[in-house]
Design brief:
Layout (H helix, E strand, L loop, with lengths): L16 H22 L1 E2 L1 H4 L2 H9 L7 E4 L6 H5 L38 H14 L6 E6 L6 H10 L7 E7 L10 H10 L4 H13 L10 H18 L1 H4 L4 E7 L3 H13 L3 E7 L7 H5 L6 E2 L20 H15 L3 E5 L3 H4 L1 H7 L4 E3 L4 H13 L3 E7 H4 L3 H9 L6 E5 L16 H6 L5 E3 L4 H13 L4 E4 L24 E4 L4 E5 L4 H13 L4 E5 L2 E3 L3 H11 L2 E8 L4 H11 L6 E6 L9 H7 L4 H12 L1 H6 L7
Parallel strand pairs: 2-3, 3-4, 4-6, 5-6, 8-9, 8-10, 10-11, 11-13, 12-13, 15-16, 15-18, 18-19
Antiparallel strand pairs: 1-7, 12-17, 14-16
Helix pairs in contact: 1-3, 3-11, 5-6, 8-9, 13-15, 13-20, 16-18, 21-25
Bound molecules: thiamine diphosphate, 1-deoxy-D-xylulose-5-phosphate (DXP) and magnesium ion (MG).
1-deoxy-D-xylulose-5-phosphate binds next to loops.
Length: 639
């Protein structure tokens, strides 16, 4: 059977190893072809092709549940669950999502995108199953990186406490996170990977006798004692950490050997209580470039399959915001040994990999552990360091209590750089950086800011690090504005001070961060429509520059706010509340992301669909405040 003929994963049942291996080749071919064409996650999925086929041969996906952690590695899952023909639309507007999505397929039993959630979700399904007296299997497939996330350990702690709750955890151990894995658990797993698969020896004893009819598949007592003694002898070396936590540990087994995995999963399904099968895989398996550069091929934009190289861009691009951040932080760290950079397993994405190379002593990667990163930084700040924590806007959501409880309330001098703030594009709703403006507004003692360009980012960094309290700076994904940059000697900003970029009498545009450049473009288009707009670069969400904004608002009487963030509780809401507090009753058009999820698409497509392009914003402003408005409402109704 060819992969393209597969419409249901249960069609995998009964296929021979040779047929499954042929299908594995077809999956790899499709996976490579689509990701090379339109970009996406490459290495993770290539590493779990055989694992997916073997696991699904032992499950009935009309009844059993499988929860993939993160889901970035689940392209093989998508290909064997009816999405082969649409797979070429991966991560494109209206196409197949890059992560699992319950609304996309009945076989996507739980959505994700953020790491370390799978065991909790699968355990929840298992507990619900038992309450209903049903008997479907619940499986979590989690990577060695995601296993370092606190939630995963919380779930293991709970599951290990439930000896009668059947749950299978498949640990996909490829000895990689996005970068090299971090932590004692990763080190231990690596030691286990290198050990002999003890359990499997005893498993093969079962295999040897289970066909003997008079045993009815049961191990004779003496063999059971042999297996137990082997476990007692060997498990302390191999699976102790999981066995001590109440799991039956099996492995490590070869994650590219389909028959071995099928046998092991079948044995695991027969076990009572929680079982962890440790599968050793290779990230990027089957594509030499991805195997050789497992960091670089974690995710890729379109590339040439033959050479493994990205296609050269048509015109030179300015450095990314992340790169400017990383390079600037190196200079700051060189001048001030108190300053350290902290990442939660996102060194390459945040630009902190540059700091790691230049000043490894002032760099920390804590693994996928955002909560720990924030509170560790708080502890560092108590002892006189000036930590700079670089975490994507969306991933920092996971450490909200730490921001309030450990940093804000204690007013500790920690700088947060929220990368990927705003619309990120192909990663879709789980990764959009659309909530940080809203979620940071209420955190006590925080100074919250957003630069209009990379030069202002550099100034905000020195401002934050010098400030004796917590600061947060949001920066977007991708290239900067391409403005000239200084190498050092950046002039700090006055906290709470915005800037008037251009004046005008017809409408006041107050723009925040990455919306400042589009605001200036919008003002130019409004000029062509006969509306002269004043444009303010707010710079600060907290504290808002009232001394600048209020007089302009009173004088002009018509205000537009612009933010690349959620409107509920966002920057525009802060401006409206300020007007209200000062009894300034004037109309405000808030432009930003409405209260909705932004699906996967290119950032440009998403902005178009949200009417956030300069042309669309000019039309919206003209429609609201154009000649019609002037005829019906007198100017500023300042009280
Ligand atoms: C909470 C959270 N932090 C960070 C990330 C970014 N991220 C995506 S995949 C990944 C590495 C996952 O490693 P692993 O679980 O071992 O999967 P592999 O890529 O090796 O298959 C990270 C850090 C995330 N998705 N969620
Ligand atoms: C799966 C995951 O969460 C990361 O790989 C994420 O997709 C990286 O995003 P960027 O590509 O914006 O760095
Ligand atoms: Mg891994």
């Amino acid at each position: 059977m060819h992969l393209s003929e597969l419409s249901h994963p249960n069609q995998l049942h009964g296929l021979s190893t040779a047929e499954l291996e042929a299908m594995a080749r077809q999956i790899r071919e499709k996976h490579l072809q689509v990701v090379a064409t339109s970009g996406g996650h490459l290495g993770p999925g290539l590493g779990v092709v055989e694992l997916t086929l073997a696991l699904y041969q032992t499950l009935d996906l009309d009844h059993d549940r499988v929860v993939w952690d993160v889901g970035h590695q689940a392209y093989p899952h998508k290909l064997v669950t009816g999405r082969y023909k649409d797979f070429h639309t991966l991560r494109q507007k209206g196409g197949v999502a890059g992560y699992l999505k319950r609304s996309e397929s009945r076989f996507d039993h739980f959505g994700a995108g953020h790491a370390s959630t799978s065991i909790s979700a699968a355990l929840g399904m298992a507990l619900a199953r038992d309450r209903r007296g049903e008997d479907f299997k619940c499986v979590a497939v989690i990577g060695d990186g995601a296993l370092t996330g606190g939630m995963a350990l919380e779930a293991i702690n709970h599951a290990g406490h439930l000896p009668h709750t059947k749950l299978l955890v498949v640990l996909n151990d490829n000895d990689m996170s996005i970068s090299a894995p971090v932590g004692a658990l990763s080190t231990h797993l690596n030691r286990m990977r290198l050990s002999k698969p003890v359990q499997f020896l005893s498993g093969s004893a079962e295999e040897a006798v289970k066909h003997l009819p008079f045993l009815h598949g049961e191990l004779p007592t003496e063999l059971k004692t042999l297996k137990e003694s082997m476990k007692r002898l060997a498990v302390p070396k191999v699976g102790a950490v999981f066995e001590e936590l109440g799991f039956t540990y099996v492995g490590p087994i070869d994650g590219h050997d389909i028959p071995e995995m099928v046998r092991t999963f079948q044995a695991a399904h027969r076990c009572e209580g929680p079982v962890l099968v440790h599968v050793a895989t290779t990230k990027g398996k089957g594509y030499p470039y991805a195997e050789a550069d497992q960091v670089g091929y974690h995710a890729q934009s379109a590339f040439d399959l033959a050479t493994g190289k990205a296609y050269p861009s048509s015109k030179p691009k300015p450095p990314s915001w992340s790169k400017v951040f990383g390079q600037t932080l190196i200079k700051i760290c060189e001048q001030d040994p108190r300053v350290v950079g902290i990442t939660a397993a996102m060194a390459t994405g945040t630009g902190l990999d540059l700091l790691e190379k230049a000043l490894p002593g002032q760099y920390f990667d804590v693994g996928i552990a955002e909560q720990h990163a924030v509170t560790m930084a708080a502890g560092m700040a108590c002892e006189g360091l000036r930590p700079v924590v670089a975490i994507y806007s969306t991933f920092l959501q996971r450490a909200y209590d730490q921001l309030i409880h450990d940093v804000g309330i204690q007013k500790l001098p920690v700088t947060f750089v929220l990368d990927r703030a705003g619309i990120v594009g192909a990663d879709g709703p789980t990764h959009q950086g659309q909530y940080d403006i809203s979620y940071l507004r209420a955190v006590p003692n925080f100074t919250v800011m957003a630069p209009k360009d990379e030069a202002e980012l550099q100034r905000m960094l020195v401002t934050s690090i010098a400030h004796d309290g917590p600061c947060a700076i949001r920066i977007p994904r991708g290239e900067g504005e391409g403005v000239p940059l200084m190498d050092e000697g950046w002039q700090p900003l006055e906290i709470g001070r915005g800037e008037l970029l251009t004046d005008g009498d017809d409408v006041l545009i107050v723009a925040y961060g990455a919306m400042v450049a589009p605001a200036m473009a919008t003002a130019g288009l409004l000029q062509e429509k006969g509306l002269r707009a004043a444009v303010v670069n707010a710079r600060f969400l907290r504290p808002l520059d009232e001394a600048l904004i209020l007089p302009l608002a009173r004088r002009i009487g018509r205000v537009v706010t612009m933010e690349e963030g959620a409107l509920p509780g966002g920057f525009g809401a802060a401006v409206v509340e300020t007007f209200n507090d000062h009894e300034l009753a004037i109309p405000v058009l808030r432009i930003g992301i409405p209260d909705l999820l932004v699906d996967h698409a290119s950032p440009e497509q998403s902005k178009e669909s949200l009417s956030l392009t300069p042309a669309q914003m000019a039309d919206r402003i003209h429609e609201r405040f154009g000649p019609v408005f002037r005829a019906t409402v007198p100017t500023a109704l300042a009280v």
